[in-house]
Every structure is written in C-alpha cells, then in structure tokens.
Predict the structure.
Amino acid sequence: MHQLMQRTLLAAALAALAGSFVAAPGALAAAPAVKTPAPGFYRIMVGDFEVTPISDGTVDLPVDQLLHEKPETTRAILEKNFLKAPLETSDNAYLVNTGSKLVLIDSGAGVLFGPTLGKFVNNLRAAGYRPEQVDEIYITHMHGDHVGGLVSNGQRVFPNAIVRAGKADADFWLNKANLDKAPADKKGSFQGAMAAINPYVQAGKFKPIESNGELTPGISALATHGHTPGHTTYVVESRGQKLVLMGDLIHVAAVQFDNPTVTIGFDSDEKAAYASRKKVFDEAARNGTLVAGAHLQFPGVGHIASQGKGYKWIPVNYTQMR
Ligand SMILES: [Zn+2]
C-alpha cells in the first residue's frame, strides 16, 4: 500500500476512535462489576504428584462462641488480624494425581451447610477434572463439611471411587444406636455422615482404614484421633517431597497457631484433639514439612514454624505451573 494512503487511513481510523470516545464519555469506567468469584482451585507439585487444592466455598462460623476461649479474647485476636466473628472460614479439599491414581482427600459439604458451600464439583471441573475420574477418596473424618459432597440427591457423586475413612469414625458416625441416643442438636452430624457414606457402603465401595500405613503408592494414613474418634491425617510423598493433609487439626489459624491449647466445640475429645495437633505441628515444624489444613484460608497450604509456646503459619509462596 502506498505510504501516504496508509497514513490517511490511519488518521481516519484515529479520528473515528476519537469520535466514539466523544460520543460515549466515560465508557471506559462504566464496565459493570463482574462479581463472580475466581475459580476455586490452586495447583502445586509434590515431587511427581500434581496436587490440586479445591475450594468447596466458605462458611461464616461464630468462632467466638465455638472456641474454648473467652469470647472477648477471641474477638480481640480476630480484630488484631483484621478479621471478625462470625469468621468467614474456608472449606478445602485436595485432589492428588499420583500418575497412576486420582485420589481425593475430603469432598466438601454438598448441600449440608447452605449455599455458601457445596462448590466442590464446579471447582473440580474448572480445575480440569471430572467426578467420574476419581479412583479413591480418603476422608479425614465424617463431619458434614468433609463428607457432604460425596452425594447429591442420595446418589454417589463419584461413581467409580472407593471411599476410605478411619474405622473408628465409621463405627461411631454410622451407628444407628449412637444416632438414637445423641442429643437433638447432635443428631444432624450422624444423619449427615450416614447420608453421605451409606450409598458407598451399599454399593460395596466403602473400605474402612484399620491401621496406619500406605493406602496407595505415595499416600499413607496416620491416625490423629481426637477431633473425631477416627480423625485421620494423610501423608503424600513423592521423590522425597512431602505434603501432610491434616484435616481438622486446626480450625482458626489466627487463634490456634499462637495458642494451640485452645480447642473447639466440634472436638469429640478435646484433650486428644490437642495432643494430635501438637504432635503433627511439632513434627512439621521440626522437619520443615509442607502441610495443608481443611479450614486454613484457601488454598490452606504452607509451613509451620515454632514460635514461643505456639507456632507461626507461613502460607506457601504463590507458584504457577511451568
Ligand atoms: Zn471441618
């Protein structure tokens, strides 16, 4: 094209653009806010294993009432951390692709805890996976925010998966006699566990974990009872790298890292829950092990350091896959 003609065309184009700006003043600033959340997944590598933390959403918890600490003390600590009660609390699950198996740790709440949770399957799909691809599901414990996502309308969400959980949790939460004798405000926990796990039991797809040790190459179970009778931690290990998925050993980072003796109303056995927390935290701090918690702010992955009589939480550095 002739250079002069090019220049003329360019000038005309610029004039047209300028005209459109004049015609719609302020258009650039008028884009409506999108107001949808970012897809709730993250991705890290642990050795050769791809680990995808997946958010089930968040739920507001009245932690000042739930923690066994003076409510005003809890509220003051939260305020110091730019937080407030009720505390918007993450509910995280973790998908581990070992190369030979796709293993899910916990499943979120499904419909059990209202509309701010139950986002797991959408986020799983956003992360590039489908429920039918999951081979095995290891449940840290049978509270509704960890098992509710196993079912939808009474049907198994993960039709090809074997579900595993600590035997003591199965014996406790799936027992009809325990449901019958539970106080009215505790019955829902038993009903939630039964609704989530029984379809897998009936399909021959539930296998309780009876002892510590390897469940599939690279992932092993470690009993950390206390929060519930069969609460289990899962240790993921590949090429010398380790990630410890510690479920509900901690609920409120702002309070319980600093003072790990503070327990929570959800603990079945507070003394044992504290002892399990201390054992896993001490070991993680000593060895510099990467850990993840179901209720630590998403993606809930980081390191624990010893500090004074307690610990300090150091969230993992952001990484993109490359
Ligand atoms: Zn929980």
Summary: The pocket of zinc ion is lined by residues 143, 145-146, 248, 294-295 (CB under 6 Å).
